[in-house]
Amino acid sequence: MTRGVWSITEPEVNIESIDDLDRFVNEAEARVERPTAVSVDVHGYQVDLLVGHDRSFVHLTPEDQDQPYYVTIGGTEDGGVDFWLHAWHHTEFENRHLVPKEIAREAFREFFRSGTLSQAVEWEQYFA
Length: 128
Hints:
By secondary structure, the chain is α+β, with helices and mostly antiparallel strands. The chain is built from 2 helices and 11 strands; from the N terminus they run ββαββββββββαβ. The chain has one domain. It has helices at about 20-30, 100-115, and strands at about 1-5, 15, 35-40, 45-50, 55, 60, 70-75, 80-85, 90-95, 100, 120-125. The strands form 2 sheets. Strands 1, 2, 3, 4, 6, 7, 8, 9 and 11 form a 9-stranded mixed beta sheet that branches. The longest helix is centred in the first third of the chain and has 14 residues, at about 20-30. It is globular, with a radius of gyration of 13 Å. The model has no long low-confidence stretch (mean pLDDT about 95).
C-alpha cells in the first residue's frame, strides 16, 4: 500500500488505487491555502506533485541515491514559483519545470500505476 502526504499537520492517506490517488490530490487541491507539493512513495521514489497553482510539476526523488532524479520540463520561462512542501517547508522551483496541471496529474497517475515516466511530458534526469 502507498501512503500520500499533503500536509505535515494531517495524517497520511492510504492509497491503493488510481481512484484513491485522484481523491487524495483533489482533497489536497481543495484544502491548500497556497501552492503545495504533495507526495506519494511508490516504485522506489518519492513522487511530488504541485497543487494549488495554475500549473504544476512532477518531481521524483529516488530512495536509492545512486538512482537518477526526474523532473518535468515545460518550457524556458525565467523566474520561479514559490511553494510549500507538505504545506510546511517553503521552497522555490524554476518555472521551466511547470507544465499544464492535467498533464502533470496524468504523469503522476502513470508513475503510480506503472512505475514508468509518462510520454505526455518531457523529463529532465539528474543526479544529486
